[in-house]
Amino acid sequence: MASSGSNSKSSMVNGTKQFALLPKIINGGIAGIIGVSCVFPLDLVKTRLQNQQVGPNGEKMYNSMLDCFKKTYRAEGYFGMYRGSAVNILLITPEKAIKLAANDFFRHHLTTSNGTLPITRQMAAGGLAGLCQIVITTPMELLKIQMQDAGRVAAQAKAVGKTVPKVSATSIAMELIRTKGITGLYKGTGATMLRDVSFSIVYFPLFATLNSLGPRRDDGSNEAVFWCSFLSGCAAGSMAALAVNPFDVVKTRLQALKKVEGEMQFNGVADCIGKTLKYEGVTAFFKGGLCRMIVIAPLFGIAQMVYFLGVAEALLGVKSGNK
């Protein structure tokens, strides 16, 4: 989730810019929970599209985003579209809070003495924020992906006369810790880092640039009007999501612990890239790209809305920098 960049919530005390951490953490958590609840079914479809591999005769379980929606709903019902949402909602607050607070923290400290923040420093702040969040993102995504992809794996197993036992995020986590220790929860860390760091490098400067182009709330204010921040968040989020979709495909495939019979196994980022390119072509790296753009756009639009409205500041009873 994003901080607003130019819509900073830092306050002025005795002429000194202060960094308010708690409101950023709360705003990040609120935006994350609302966003996940709204777009999770799309994220599930994205995961299944990215994980499916083309059969030897070109056969595919899902032919499109809409086809995946229909088949998932028909086989698993409404609540099946929310497989893995519990662990996502549970961990989304610390994950988004870390990213949000870290980006603002680094922007605050990388701002030059004359008050400017060059594009290279904006990119550095975003990249460092993306790096910080993977401590939560990696296990969250690992568990979420197992739950999201369980229906696809079960359906494929049923088609060949086999059954796959039902699992829960808790049972998966406990089994990984029992067999591989805490490091078992960090499978795919390299790919997660590639995706999240590159996404943040693209997103944060792009949002700040787009947001600076719109009308201001008041004469002389550096705060953009609501609709400008909302649309800037949506546009920057969707464009950054498409740009790093290849890394998201690699991460999703590496973190899928259970494969359908006959599907390729991957041994690291380079192996996954090589095999995917060889057997499925470059277009495979953009599987689920439209879904991901549709998921990310409202997530970041919601983030800007939460910031603009000053939800955390209202809850804490403190003055918002946007008011």
Automatic annotation (TrEMBL):
This is Mitochondrial glutamate carrier 2. Keywords: Membrane, Mitochondrion, Mitochondrion inner membrane, Phosphoprotein, Repeat, Symport, Transmembrane, Transmembrane helix, Transport. One of its GO terms (biological process) is malate-aspartate shuttle. Belongs to the mitochondrial carrier (TC 2.A.29) family. Pfam families: Mito_carr. The keyword Repeat applies. One of its GO terms (cellular component) is mitochondrial inner membrane. PROSITE patterns: SOLCAR. The keyword Ligase does not apply. Its main location: mitochondrion. It comes from Anopheles arabiensis. Solcar repeats lie at residues 19-109, 117-213, 224-313. InterPro entries: MCP, MCP_dom_sf, MCP_transmembrane, Mito_Solute_Carrier.
